[in-house]
Structure prediction request, 182 residues.
Amino acid sequence: MSDQDPNPDSNERSILSSDDPADQNTAEDESPDGSADDAPSDAADTEPSAAAADEAPDVDELHFEDDELGELLRHATDEQRNNAPFGIIKVDDEGEVEFFNQYESDLSGMDPDDVVGRNFFTQVAPCTNNRLFRGRFKKGVRRGELDETFTYTYTYKMRPTLVDVHLYRDEAGNNWITVQKY
Prediction:
């Protein structure tokens, strides 16, 4: 982790570079400009890591099972996130909701405009304010790395609903909660 992070202070409490892929480009600015003249179009196919750091990855379709879902979410537009077939919630390090997609709105019955700016764990979904859910989140934020998947039952303002949850912190320090209903 520390070998890849150009700004070690960014892991603690800041998400100021939330959607700016430029933070990830500093060491790779020369590569995408055609340093390999013999196959510039194939370079993106053979080196997906370099292409992902320099260009937004293809996020036409988001899938809950995607191995790189957190990084795809970071590069996706709000429209792409809203069209995803699963819940997507972006929260800051304290749990304040920054984005709440349409799927999650339909699942919870809560309007995204009413949710953004409120604390996910205490005001939006208090059934998650426990060691099993919020505890995992807080531990990952403290470590600066979060990649946890687990099964959970939502119970707040709804019939108990079994879901798969993925908590993820991307390379820019954004925290994502993704939810897929069974």
